[in-house]
User: Fold this.
Amino acid sequence: MKTIAVIGAQWGDEGKGKIVHLLSERADVICRYQGGNNAGHTVVTGGNKYVLHLLPSGILHEDKVCIIGNGLVVNPYALRDEMETLKEDGIECTSRLFVSDRASLIMPYHLELDHAYEEALGIGTTKRGIGPAYTYKYARMGVRPCDLREVSYLERIVGLALDEVNATLSGRFGRDPLKLSDVMETLDEYARILEPFVADTSKILRQHIDEGRKVIFEGAQGVLLDVDFGSYPYVTSSSPSAGGILTGLGIGPKMVGEILGVTKAYTTRVGGGPFPTELEDETGEHIRHVGGEFGASTGRPRRCGWFDAVCTRHAVRVSGIDRLAMTKFDVLDGLETLRVCTHYRIDGKETDEFPANAERLARAVPVYREFKGWDSIAGIRKYGDLHASCTHYTEELERLLGVPISIVSTGPDEKDTIFRERIAF
Ligand code: IMP
Assistant:
């Protein structure tokens, strides 16, 4: 099978953008299957840095087909802005970007609701309307690109949604209600922006697969933010896990070949929720500073901590990850001792399970194993040239996680990457 999935095996921000961009050189089609413009995939190429939110990271290679699947929630304004930024650098999306006619649109009231609910729930969302857009999709009051020219349908469905939205916004949160006519105007603009790109992407993708083209399924966020398998309720509202690929693109399970997970050599998370190995000390501050750990979408400082093998093992299992790419080893340069959480102690008992309940996860005390650090491996491009402590760390993590670490990344540039084995797809 000439397809590969690249998915986050932590709480997002693992460096998927760089890995997808690198693998894209050999691919024909790159697809996003879930999430929206809450993502921030950073790619450093040719001396330029790009942060992609909604467009697949493969878009930077001009000959690649890119697909935004039905599993996404799409804000057409964000899409337009992103395409315009790329255009300034001479990167054109027209005729090779396809947006599913069945994707869900982020409506102006989803943004309002995300802001309002955030005050009550404290999840620490990106406030891009992601959660409410998925909520309305599953409540069967969503709007999709295929609906945009069906005016009477739109008026009925948006009218129904607004009855609920306005009752919540004004009744519960004391905010101004939204008018149907204003929303309809926005939808007219949405239609104009999306029209050149809307297609039955499941059909297009299937044709590419049948004709033997190489396809990458690009995950956003990470398994620990998955609505089913993450640290619920401190999660996003989609399925970054491998399962999301099938429903988010409209293909069958046999069409997903290799599953490549991406992690950092340590752990970060942005937003609220339990994080057992979090370092709220000088070392955490050091990692944040050296690693530039600030949200690529929101600029928020990321919480930093030691590598947690318990939660990554969980991610490996629930997504059937075959092998891993591990990034940002260089950020650990100069630390004398490194720690890796091998299991948790919860309520006095040792466990190697990632708890389903967030309160229980919050009570998890990490049990650490210590490793010797290394001086500097930044920018090293051969595995054999890495410091022995670094290869020892890598190989012990492989053992703890039960899957090979096939790619080691030693810096932000695409060239600072060691392929320990050929990634076949
Ligand atoms: P939402 O996806 O905006 O609803 O946010 C829900 C949670 O997921 C929050 O903790 C966010 O910080 C987190 N989140 C969403 N997208 C990303 C991402 O791309 N990287 C890391 N965290 C994310």
Notes: The chain has three domains: 3-100+199-259, 104-194, 264-419. The CA atoms of residues 76 and 190 lie 6 Å apart.
